[in-house]
Write a structure and sequence with these properties.
Elements lengths: L13 E7 L12 E7 L5 E4 L2 E4 L3 E6 L6 E4 L8 E8 L6 H4 L5 H9 L4 E2 L2 H14 L4 H16 L6 E2 L3 H4 L8 H13 L6 H7 L4 H12 L3 H19 L4 H7 L5 H12 L3 H11 L4
Antiparallel strand pairs: 1-7, 2-5, 2-7, 3-4, 3-6, 5-8, 8-9
């Protein structure tokens, strides 16, 4: 479901703060960026793209992916006093020219990483906690300054924050500060249905297999094999959500050559079978 947020054209951001007993809103996406803070909600299940996690007492997530589905659902939460603060702001609030200024470099990097959904660690949450809780009481210019302060403080934790959805599910291309990695990443995205061989990838960027393996792991944090599997699982997850293709068809469409192996890997990565993943999304979607 595409949500029409309350953000007006004349406002820099919209903030909604509420005390609630449960989460009832369906899975959705919207054009605006979203910063969502929740406390006293241990046991709530957070779904961002193809990432599913049960949260603890505090949760703070930034989403800048326009078509990235997300929802917080009650799951095992028994709290009767859930505190939620949701901030929506336009992607046009910070244009490319502004984001390229040195003083906003860290915010720019944070926005890029948050296209996958970005979950902040507890030190980041505590750093902005008082600002978040007092933001709704501010007015005009000073409210905007406090909002900018929140974004800047969070941007200092970008490296420690956790990217949630896979890039292939979120329909975005991950960016690496390396021409070689970018070349490999583009090749894999274009050829993930085919066999991806380490020797060929190394040759593609003029390296030996051993050197390439070390280089790739250092730059991406993953082995080539794990990276390719994650890309394939992301594309498979997207097909499960967006199409009526059978699980077997999706398996072979995404480069897996064995259905049992696909089911096993999917279960390991997503903690559910492909069929369960599809059924879960269908239950949460409302189509108008």
């Amino acid at each position: 479901m595409r949500e029409i947020t309350p953000l007006s054209d004349k406002d820099c951001f919209y903030i909604g703060e509420r005390i609630k007993t449960e989460f009832t809103y369906p899975i959705h996406h919207h054009d605006e960026y979203e910063l969502n803070f929740i406390e006293q909600a241990a046991g709530v299940r957070r779904v961002i793209g193809d990432s599913t996690e049960v949260i603890n007492d505090f949760d703070l997530v930034l989403i800048t992916g326009r078509d990235l589905e997300h929802v917080w659902e009650q799951h095992e939460c028994s709290s009767k006093r859930i505190h939620e603060i949701t901030i929506h702001f336009s992607s046009q609030l910070f244009n490319e020219s502004l984001l390229n200024k040195n003083q906003l470099e860290s915010i720019h990097k944070m926005f890029e990483k948050a296209k996958n959904g970005l979950s902040f660690p507890m030190p980041a949450i505590m750093k902005v906690y008082s600002h978040l809780c007092s933001l709704s009481s501010e007015q005009g210019f000073y409210a905007f300054i406090k909002f900018l302060t929140i974004l800047y403080e969070l941007s200092l934790y970008t490296e420690d924050a956790k990217a949630l959805s896979s890039s292939s599910f979120a329909k975005i291309e991950p960016t690496f500060n390396s021409r070689r990695i970018h070349k490999i990443q583009k090749y894999i995205n274009d050829n993930y249905r085919e066999e991806i061989r380490l020797e060929h990838m190394a040759h593609l960027v003029g390296m030996t297999s051993t050197s390439f393996s070390r280089f790739f792991k250092l730059r991406t944090g993953k082995t080539l094999s794990d990276y390719v599997i994650d890309i394939r699982i992301g594309f498979a997850s997207r097909l499960l959500v967006d199409t009526t293709m059978s699980v077997a068809e999706i398996c072979y469409e995404c480069g897996f050559n064995n259905l049992s192996n696909f089911n096993r890997i999917f279960k390991k990565k997503k903690d559910c079978s492909p069929k369960e993943f599809r059924e879960y999304y269908r239950k949460k979607k409302i189509i108008f």
